[in-house]
Amino acid sequence: MTIPIRKTKQQSLKTRQESKNNQKENKTSQSIDNNPQELKSSQTVANLPLQVKDQGVKLEIQEASNEGTTLSFKVNLQNEGVTPVRFLYSFLEVKDSQGRALSAITEGLLQELPPNSENFVGKVKIPSALINDSQTLSFNLTDYPDQKLQLNIAQIPVIR
Fold first, then answer.
1. In whole angstroms, what is the distance from residue 111 CA to residue 86 CA?
2. What's the rounded Cα separation, in Å, for the pair 94 and 96?
């Protein structure tokens, strides 16, 4: 009969521990909810937005934010021209202030911008570990396959 009592005590201890953990989680989520600055990951940066336009195509970097281990840039693309423009985002060249090439991932950007289009919003994400001591970045995007369009933005601030 001692075995069921031990199980009951162990179960009771486990239940108490789970209850304490739940209380800690609730306190943590409450403290975050009461402090809106902790929730906000994007920052207003002095020289954002930055924008460049070439042959009727506009690239704009609207804001920068830290998303965990990633530096994320909200970008807009718009084609005000009369012909569609195609992009291959693996051609997006991102460099740090020392001229080193960085890998970047794009999300939500169209492969082909229709003519006379609205703004299309997406993200460019760069692993924070790659940025290290850089203060600024540069983006260079060209159309595909022609590569006649050059969208270059320099002095993009790095936030930490």
1. 6
2. 7
Q: What is the pLDDT of residues 54-76, one digit of tens each?
A: 999 999 999 999 999 999 999 99
Please give the pLDDT value at position 46.
59
pLDDT for 45 equals 60
| Strand runs labelled E in the chain | 42-43, 50-54, 57-67, 70-79, 85-86, 93-96, 101-102, 105-107, 112-113, 120-127, 136-142, 150-157
Nearest to 96 by CA among 44, 133, 142: 133
44: three-class secondary structure by DSSP: coil
Which segments in the chain show pLDDT lower than 70?
Answer: 1-46
Considering just the CA atoms, what is the radius of gyration of the chain in Å? 24
Supply φ then ψ for residue 15, to 5 degrees. -65, -45
d(CA 98, CA 101): 9
The structure's pTM equals 0.71
CA distance 128 to 143: 27
